[in-house]
Design goal:
The complex is a heterodimer of chains A (461) and B (300).
Chain A: H1 4-30, E1 40-46, E2 53-59, H2 64-93, H3 101-115, H4 122-180, H5 186-205, E3 208-212, E4 218-222, E5 226-230, E6 233-234, E7 236-241, E8 249-254, E9 260-262, H6 270-306, H7 361-368, H8 382-422, H9 426-458
Antiparallel strand pairs in A: 1-2, 3-4, 4-5, 5-6, 7-8, 8-9
Helix pairs in contact in A: 1-9, 2-5, 2-6, 2-8, 3-4, 3-7, 3-8, 4-5, 4-6, 6-8
Chain B: H1 5-32, H2 43-97, H3 104-125, E1 128-129, E2 132-133, E3 163-167, E4 170-173, H4 178-182, H5 194-207, H6 210-215, H7 217-263, H8 267-292
Antiparallel strand pairs in B: 1-2, 3-4
Helix pairs in contact in B: 1-8, 2-3, 2-7, 3-5
The chains are: A alpha+beta (461), B mainly alpha (300).
């Protein structure tokens, strides 16, 4: 039969357990807005032999597939976000209006057409020459801005790589600390919270997968292949200028063992993946289109212009500098030929030397180029090539915007699921608070009653 | 499903944030009146708008060409009309002088008038506009006829007139040809060199008799026909340019309409979209306020 002391001890254990439970509730409630905080559950269990109640605290954990989903969506979102600022400025670059690329090409051909009215007129010649110059400068300017965007995003790689390395190192350090304090005490729970948060942050930068091994270590794999964090060790990334990439940086993965792998074209999501994709494919494709346009314009116009005669009766002069043979770089190099600068008299309007003054048949040939399918590998006119390019830019930017909002929604949905499992609900805490308070009151009452019983027993004479 | 505080807050944030950005976009459209500004607003539309703008620009330059060409043709028409008057006067004189009752003195006077008429005709053939000889072939900086009435170029080789583009792959001639109006060309056996004709007439008036003078009448008639014929050509060219100008003007209107349809916002729709977006924002705000509000905390 249990003694009075036994009952008193029961009451004491209950008092202590509920006080601790209330403290836990207070901790949960106070961390309601803390990012990454996982709710600590108060688990009561009966004491097996002496009776009374035991309290154990446990940190809630989200199912691994949810964590993986969040990591995936973080990477997708990070990738889209990294591109969006740069793409928005590309979008504005191709905005239509005075001085846009399409407008400049139109103006050049129109100036040629109007020069045909009076091919010997110096003012009209000057006008046509300056429109040719403007066209070359606008196209070169567009290509240069695209190239600048490439350089600018390349610049941001350093900071991001540094961030990845410091996050990886923090994860490894946390792995170490967590195993030093095994079990589910408050200290450990805080470390686990922190680790989950850091992992998500890492997931925004590079695509990662993670799992926890039997020792409780978090293992992080970069892109699902290379081990970025393993136990208390971590690998790192390095961005170094690469001559093969025209001075832009290539990305190396330096494994835990020290083995180096070039991963420049292997990372496709996360902010780093986004930036690499933007730099090496999205923007490059646009630059190539502008290059091809510049190449076609310069070479086609030159081909006609060289066969024509200037006011001085000489032929064989190109209007633009000869574009580079390999097309690459044709746009940035586009400019009117050095011999033509400030020499409107050299514009070739005539088809033969005898008609040097007054013949306009070369101009008719030149303006005919406007209506020929000479751009886009012979598929489009110059005007429709620019239009097509605008469509490509628009679709690229639009696809990025859609990807951004899609990733945002998917990330929110995954986080919602996680929150539902591990987050703090204040109503729940308030109900717990009332419950624990009542139990605490009941335990006090119990102790008071035992005390009265003692008095009764001690009062026996 | 367990609903936590952070979920509620996230929901409110997303709802208000999304609807606010909708309002901003609707505001932009309503304020600028442009549905499509950046290529990403409507990639296919932006692309089509670019082509249409190109067509507008092109058509504008056709109109400019037509306007300038018309001026030049009007000048040519005017000059050829004067040339006709000159030739008619020549014919009158020739008819009057081909009479045996006319004295040698009268014929000498007539010869003088013919000489004057010849230099008028030379001036007409050398009509200039904007510093260019409009009856020259393409060498418009060189006078087509010299003071003596000799052509400065081979009239059999150069009968063409400057062409400019006045429509999509269509060109029109601006100006007229001195070779066709005033010269004798191998290609046209009926043609007469008017300056040589006037020289001959003048010589015959000074030295020969009525028969010789009369023998020129037929050539003079041919010469008049020749000038009138080239003037008719000019009329045809003017007509052609007028038509092209009208077509280009219509094309500009048409393409502008298409462009506007692509890029401009319909005012009524823009404002109702703005209204809708604002209502959405208000709804999001009041729903969020309601959902975030009630809690057990209020009751205990």
């Amino acid at each position: 039969m249990p003694s009075l002391t036994h009952i008193l001890n029961n009451g004491k254990s209950s008092l202590i357990a509920h006080q601790r439970a209330i403290a836990n509730t207070a901790n949960n409630a106070s961390n309601v807005s803390t990012p990454g905080f996982h709710r600590r559950d108060s688990n009561f269990s009966p004491k097996a032999f002496e009776g009374g109640v035991n309290l154990e605290m446990s940190r809630r954990q989200a199912a691994n597939y949810i964590t993986e989903q969040i990591l995936d969506q973080n990477a997708a979102l990070g990738g889209a976000q990294a591109k969006s600022a740069s793409l928005a400025s590309v979008d504005r670059l191709f905005r239509e209006g005075e001085g846009s690329m399409g407008n400049a090409i139109d103006r050049f051909f129109n100036a040629v057409r109007n020069l045909a009215l009076a091919p010997a007129d110096v003012d009209r010649r000057q006008e046509a020459l300056s429109k040719a110059d403007e066209m070359a400068q606008t196209i070169a300017g567009t290509a240069k801005r695209l190239e600048q965007e490439r350089r600018a995003v390349d610049q941001s790689l350093d900071t991001l790589v540094e961030k990845v390395n410091s996050l990886a190192s923090e994860l490894a350090q946390l792995n170490k600390d967590i195993t030093l304090t095994p079990g589910e005490d408050a200290q450990n729970a805080a470390l686990l919270d922190r680790q989950a948060l850091v992992l998500k942050e890492l997931g925004e930068l590079v695509p990662v997968h993670s799992f926890r091994d039997k020792q409780g270590h978090l293992t992080v794999l970069l892109g699902g292949a290379q081990a970025l964090v393993q136990a208390d060790e971590h690998a790192s990334l390095a961005a170094t200028p690469d001559l093969a990439l025209d001075g832009l940086k290539s990305l190396k993965f330096v494994g835990i063992s020290g083995l180096e792998v070039n991963v420049t074209d292997k990372i496709h999501s996360g902010q780093i993946g986004g930036i690499l994709g933007l730099r090496d494919s999205t923007l490059t494709a646009m630059v190539e289109r502008v290059d091809a346009l510049a190449f076609d314009l310069s070479s086609q116009i030159n081909a006609v212009h060289e066969t024509g005669f200037g006011l001085d009766g000489s032929d064989g002069r190109p209007l633009f500098e000869a574009p580079p043979v390999g097309v690459t770089g044709a746009a940035t190099a586009m400019a009117i030929h050095a011999d033509m600068i400030d020499r409107p008299d050299r514009l070739a309007a005539a088809a033969d030397a005898s008609g040097a003054v007054g013949d306009n048949s070369k101009l008719l040939e030149l303006q005919n180029l406007e209506d020929q399918p000479l751009a886009g590998a012979g598929a489009r006119t110059f005007a429709s090539e620019v239009a097509d390019l605008i469509g490509v830019v628009g679709r690229t930017v639009q696809a990025n915007q859609e990807q951004l909002s899609r990733a945002k929604i998917a990330k929110e949905a995954a986080e919602n699921m996680e929150q539902s499992q591990v987050g703090v609900a204040l109503d729940e805490e308030m109900i717990d608070l009332m419950r624990f308070q009542r139990a605490y009151q009941a335990s006090s009452k119990l102790i008071k009653t035992v005390d009265e019983l003692y008095e009764t027993v001690l009062g026996l004479k | 499903m367990r609903i936590t505080q952070q979920q509620l807050q996230q929901f409110a944030q997303t709802a208000v944030g999304d609807t606010r950005s909708n309002v901003q976009e609707a505001q932009r459209v309503a304020a600028t009146g442009r549905r499509v500004q950046d290529p990403s607003d409507d990639p296919a539309g932006s692309s089509r708008a670019r082509i249409v703008r190109s067509l507008v620009d092109e058509s504008k330059s056709y109109v400019q060409n037509a306007d300038f060409g018309k001026l030049r043709l009007q000048q040519a028409d005017q000059s050829l009309s004067e040339a006709t008057s000159v030739m008619v006067r020549v014919k009158e004189l020739a008819l009057a002088m081909a009479n045996d009752t006319i004295s040698q003195d009268q014929r000498l006077l007539a010869a003088q008038e013919i000489d004057t008429l010849k230099s008028s005709l030379i001036d007409i053939a050398n009509t200039k506009q904007n510093g260019e000889f409009i009856f020259a072939h393409t060498a418009t900086k060189t006078a087509p006829v010299d003071d003596s009435g000799a052509f400065s170029f081979d009239v059999d080789l150069h009968t063409q007139v400057r062409r400019v583009e006045i429509g999509p792959s269509s060109t029109g001639e601006i100006g007229a040809s001195v070779s066709r109006a005033f010269a004798q060309r191998a290609a046209d056996p009926e043609s007469t060199d008017l300056f040589a004709l006037l020289d001959d007439l003048s010589d015959d008036l000074k030295t020969a008799g009525s028969d010789e003078i009369r023998s020129h009448i037929e050539s003079i008639n041919k010469g008049i026909d020749q000038v009138v014929g080239e003037r008719a050509e000019v009329g045809v060219r003017m007509n052609r340019i007028d038509n092209a100008r009208t077509t280009a003007k219509q094309a500009i209107e048409l393409y502008r309409g298409i462009e506007s349809e692509i890029v401009d916002a319909d005012a009524a729709e823009a404002f109702s979209q703005l209204q809708l977006a604002q209502t959405g924002l208000q709804a999001a705000i009041s729903v969020s306020a309601r959902v975030l509000g009630p809690s057990l905390l209020d009751k205990i």
